[in-house]
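Bit of a strange request maybe. I'm writing a small parser for structure token strings and I need a real example to test against, not something I typed by hand. Could someone generate the tokens for this chain?
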Amino acid sequence: MPAIQALLIVLYTLVIGTLAMAACLILPRTGAFTGLARLWSWLILKTLGVRYTAAYHPRVDPSRPSVYVANHQSQLDIPVLMLAMPVDFRVVTKRELLFVPVFGWALWMAGFIFIDRGDRERAIRSLERAARKVRRGTSIVVFAEGTRSPDGRLLPFKKGGFILALQAGVPIVPVVIRRGHDLLPKGSLRPRRGTMEIGFGEPIETSTYRWETKDLLIEAVRERIAAALATENLLKST
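Reply from user aminoacidic:
Good idea to test on real output. This should exercise your parser:
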């Protein structure tokens, strides 16, 4: 990544992250954090020369809290999702991000959910907090693979996001992200200019699934995302 781009991204993060923390303290229920997060995302993508297109299934209902389950290809996924999501949301993410100065602190103050993958009991408690947040009306985004794919192909799905949806009693919206790996693969610091694609598929009701059948729910969501990745029309299979 050219030095000027790296410096600008650090500057955006420091300034907007600090403003976001202040907004969480002073204006916690006004949507100020989301507005600042979207500004940060727009600036990041603009600086890197990355655009995106988004498609939405007509049954996606922004007024209904849901768990949005996405694949994960690139560090660009977060800013693209921040701009494309049809509703205010929070993310279930790895605990390590909490310790990133300013960026991680702002996410914590905004109510993002941090999962400690090395501590099962703490992870369960984090999912329970997330479920309570969803029941109060906040949609949650989960990267089902748990990490970025090294080659763009789907990795096995983790169970946490699906347990969260079952606990909260809300639908799952499959989200497919394409071309993130092409523009900024895992391990690379040299982003390419181009256009990413994101599709929000038909919601899957979780009311017909139980704890004992959660593996069938995971399989159903993964099949839809895999099918959408393989087709030209992102909504055709999702």
